[in-house]
Each structure stands twice: as structure tokens, then as C-alpha cells.
Write a structure and sequence with these properties.
The protein is α/β, with parallel strands linked by helices. The protein has twelve helices and ten strands.
Length: about 300
């Protein structure tokens, strides 16, 4: 499918660097956008709406007309007491891309559309995708098996075609994507864009603690634990961080209530990552990583032409 016009001529790579809780900030966003990838961050990575707007100032000051557009993640969940204020700031500042999570609400979509912004919504199954389409979103992010954060369990070979069967907008694929070849693979199976998170936690500009970055570099897919016991919603976490927090990964106490106002405490010491950690071997600058991914993507396209 053709990409939305705001992306035309501004992407060097068909990829979005996902909004990572407590890890994405202005330095990472601007570095990725200047390198030709869509950089994003969660509004809740700042403690107040006022500080969120200050980050928008910082990001916009670091971009120019050749940069890829940036985006902001808004958590659309009843426990997010800041949603109304953050949405008002988003509309006032005309943020180009809004990524919504944990609820597809038409009023939020309409507010972003009022100034010409785009709304992409992340989903883990067809039912959620259908609700997002009904709400009028411009893009659906298929969060498949192996994704960091609140990941799903479905194979991309199952979920992407099902979404495409009823949705004509942009489809973004998330789930263990760490290389340029994997971005090309996402395109081959029908996604318009790839969604990358874990690979960018291990970059110089990431706000993640150094120990978190090094744990990702040393981890393998078998080190990822999928559980709802940490935050109340199923997500993937690094087993060593669970152990370091004094918990037994095999005997985690049930936790069934999501409360965004307490999420920072939960995720501060127990670190989330996707199954693609096994492909992460270093902690480069974001610019160097984006250049590497672009070269890998180009090589993968050449190789695909010979299949």
C-alpha cells in the first residue's frame, strides 16, 4: 500500500522506532528522524504534560525539512489520568503521528485528524484490529509474537494477512525485528513498515540504564519471559532482570490490574525486551545503527530479487 503523504520522500528506511517506556527521549527521536526513520516516544516518559511539551520543543528544534516525521505514543486507558491534557497538547502542537495503545477511541482519532495528524494503533489480534479500523485509524501496528513490551502471541504470517483482508490503511509489523533484512522480510509478507524497539534500547542515545543495554547485548531469545505478572498485561521481560529484582521467573505472583500511574515503578528495575535480543551485539549511536540497517535492507532487497 502507498504510505501516507507525510512519509513520502522523507524515509530512508520503511521503519518506525517504537515508543519505548522509560527509554525513548528527544536525543533518540531526533537522531532517528535525521537518519530517515520515524522516531517516537511515549508522552508518559515525562512526568508532567508541561515537560512533555518541552520535549516537543527540543525535538522540533533538532529536525529540519529533510528529517523523517516524529510521533508520540498516548496510552488510551482509563488509568491514564493525563490523557486529556496530553491529547490537548498534542493537538495544539500538531504532532505528525500519534500512536495509541490500550484502547482505540474515536474521539482521540478525531482530535488528531482535526489538524491533519495520523493515528496508528497497536493491536495483538484481529478483534482489536477491527475495533481500531472502526475508530478510523490510519494505521494498525500488528504486535506479533516476540515483541518487546506488551507483545502478542500470533505469528506475523497469520496476523498481517488477516488485518489486510479488511483494512486498506498502513500496516506496521512489530515482533523481534532487529536487522535490515528483517525489515525487508516484513515488507515481503505484506507490512508497509517495520516497528523496532529492543534494538534501539541498546543505543548511545537511549535513556535506558547502561546495565539494561548490556543485558540486551548479552541476552538470547530464551532469556525472554512472557507474563502478565509484572504489570497486569502480558508483556515480554528479561529473565535476568526479574531475578535481579529478587523474583523467581517460574513462580511469579499474579498481577491482574493495569495502572498506568504506577507503571514507571514496575518497569524501572524489571526490564522489557523482545525475542530479537539474540541479534543485538553492540551499543552503537543511533545514527550508526540506522546507517547499518539501511545497508542491510538494501542488500536484502538485492538478495530477494534472486529468489
Amino acid at each position: 500500500m502507498p504510505l501516507p503523504s507525510v512519509f513520502e520522500g522523507r524515509l530512508r528506511l520503511p521503519a518506525i522506532v517504537s515508543p519505548m517506556f522509560l527509554a525513548s527521549g528527544p536525543a533518540l527521536v531526533t537522531a532517528c528522524c535525521r537518519a530517515g526513520l520515524v522516531g517516537t516516544f511515549p508522552a508518559l516518559n515525562q512526568r508532567t504534560t508541561e515537560r512533555y511539551e518541552a520535549w516537543l520543543d527540543e525535538i522540533e528544534a533538532g529536525l529540519d525539512g529533510t528529517s523523517a516525521p516524529y510521533g508520540v505514543n498516548l496510552i488510551v486507558h482509563p488509568s491514564n489520568r493525563r490523557l486529556e491534557a496530553d491529547l490537548a497538547t498534542t493537538v495544539k502542537r500538531k504532532v505528525p503521528l500519534v500512536i495509541t495503545s490500550l484502547g482505540a477511541v474515536k474521539d482521540v482519532v478525531d482530535a488528531v485528524h482535526s489538524y491533519g495528524g495520523l493515528v496508528f494503533h497497536d493491536v495483538i489480534n484481529r478483534r482489536h484490529a477491527e475495533k481500531a479500523a472502526e475508530a478510523g485509524v490510519d494505521g494498525i501496528i500488528a504486535v506479533c509474537a516476540g515483541a518487546g513490551g506488551h507483545g502478542g502471541t500470533l505469528s506475523p504470517f497469520a496476523l498481517v494477512p488477516e488485518i489486510r483482508s479488511f483494512f486498506s490503511g498502513t500496516i506496521v509489523l512489530a515482533g523481534a525485528i532487529s536487522t535490515g533484512a528483517q525489515i525487508a522480510a516484513a515488507r515481503l509478507i505484506g507490512a508497509d513498515l517495520a516497528y523496532m524497539g529492543t534494538r534501539f534500547i541498546a543505543t548511545a542515545e537511549s535513556l535506558a540504564p547502561q546495565g539494561f543495554k548490556e543485558m540486551i547485548v548479552g541476552a538470547r531469545a530464551s532469556d525472554i519471559v512472557y507474563t502478565s505478572a509484572i504489570s497486569g498485561v502480558n508483556a515480554n521481560f528479561l529473565r535476568p532482570s526479574i531475578v535481579a529484582a529478587g523474583l523467581d521467573p517460574e513462580n511469579l505472583a499474579p498481577h491482574t490490574k493495569l495502572d498506568m500511574n504506577g507503571e514507571a515503578k514496575v518497569w524501572k528495575d524489571i526490564w522489557s525486551a523482545g525475542q530479537g535480543v539474540g541479534s543485538v551485539a553492540d551499543i552503537p549511536s543511533a545514527a550508526d545503527l540506522c546507517a547499518r540497517l539501511t545497508d542491510e535492507f538494501t542488500a536484502a532487497k538485492v538478495a530477494a530479487a534472486t529468489l
